[in-house]
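Students often ask why we bother encoding 3D structure as a string. The short answer is that it lets us treat folding as translation between two languages. Here is a chain of 240 residues written in the first language.
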Amino acid sequence: VGVSAHGSVRVVTERSRIAMPETGIGFVPDVGGTYLLGLAPGELGTHLALTGEPVGARDALTCGLADHFVPAADLPRFVADLAAEPVRDVLARYVTEAPAGSLAGQREWIDACYSAATVEEIVDRLQAHGSPAAKEAAETLLGKSPTALKVTLRALREARRLGPLERVLEQEYRVSCAALGSADLVEGIRAQVIDKDRAPRWSPAALADVTGADVDRYFLPLGARDLALGAGGPAQEEPW
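And here it is in the second language, the structure alphabet:
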């Protein structure tokens, strides 16, 4: 995502799977992920950020994580043509309609549930909703790091307020540095990557035990270690 999703021409195929699964290892979406997901329609970005759910081509287009669909079988010719012709001309020949996705049809429960002010209330709304997909999302959230969920929700909503990507990256750097000293990141990597038992023991283990002060710690200034990027200027028009 960090390499591709900030590009000006983002192409997906029927094989594409895009996700920001950091809450599953006790971490928080980075590489501008909170910026991108904060721009998604309604609360789709909140759903993807908290659950880490991977999406295919159509849902990536719906969420603004991609721009065009090209069938995978056409990629070799597509890439070859890009070497010789302007992007806009090549796209016109290869871009087609993406296969159906699922998120657009789930906006009703996603927007209603994820607009809540806290992760606890989001889970309560998901569990109370009649949609089986909403209940499944609640179960997914309850398996993630409680601290990472609360920090992610705040980071995503702060990203919407901060404005340009540079400001959001500064926040993500601050949050990431704090996460490096957290027990949950070590435990999440152990459970998912090293031992692969898929049974992390989060600390704190419950959402109710993660305090406001616990979350605030991730957003404290780093002083001389803070990232300071230049103010984001207007986007430059592409030559193609």
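Translate back mentally: The longest strand covers residues 11-12. Keep this in mind for the problem set.
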